[in-house]
């Protein structure tokens, strides 16, 4: 067989790595602690509730019957805000069944980012189930091939393995 088409496998980075914080919409200078969910160090860990208009969102849906896949830096499975919400996922960086965050807050500025994003999903859709999928390394870097693999994995995922139940991933 001859190769008909090829394209480069580009690296991609989390927005914060590239200098923009989507949490604040302003250039990022490393001030957000994703691990604590506190954008300004003031201890106001629930800053996002008003920003995303959470009460209005909950009046429309609380995510019952929905499974969401979060593709990010991984997740802290022991985080109390995520208790009972996580289903098994996958780590496409280390290629194993443990999509846990890797690194430490002291040495990796994006440590906690995936847990933060997963926490936002859990707060926005508290009745949903969440599949953590690690696609970014400790520096927030991943590549397009890994992302494509993870998207295909999520799109075909059936968390309980029973196609008769309606628990397939609906949101990625």
Describe the structure.
There is one protein chain. The protein is an alpha/beta fold. The chain is built from four helices and eight strands. The strands form three sheets. It has a four-stranded parallel β-sheet, sandwiched between helices. Strands 1-7 form a two-stranded antiparallel sheet. A two-stranded antiparallel sheet has the order 2-3. Strand 2 and strand 3 form a beta hairpin. The longest helix is centred in the C-terminal third of the chain and has 12 residues. About 13% of the residues have low confidence.
Quick recap of the structure?
This protein is an alpha/beta fold and 172 residues long.
Task: Describe the protein's topology.
Layout: E1 11-13, E2 20-21, E3 26-27, H1 48-51, H2 54-60, E4 67-72, E5 90-91, H3 113-124, E6 129-134, E7 141-143, H4 144-155, E8 169-171
Parallel strand pairs: 4-6, 4-8, 5-6
Antiparallel strand pairs: 1-7, 2-3
What's the total helix number?
Answer: 4
Order of helices and strands: EEEHHEEHEEHE
Helix percentage range: 10-25%
Give the tally of β-strands: 8
Strand order of the largest sheet: 5-6-4-8
Report the uncertain regions: 21-43
Distance between the termini: 35 Å
Residues in β-strands, percent: 15-25%
Radius of gyration: 17 Å
- Principal-axes shape call: globular
Average residue pLDDT? 82
What class, by secondary structure content?
Answer: alpha/beta
User: How would a crystallographer describe the biggest sheet?
Assistant: 4 strands, parallel
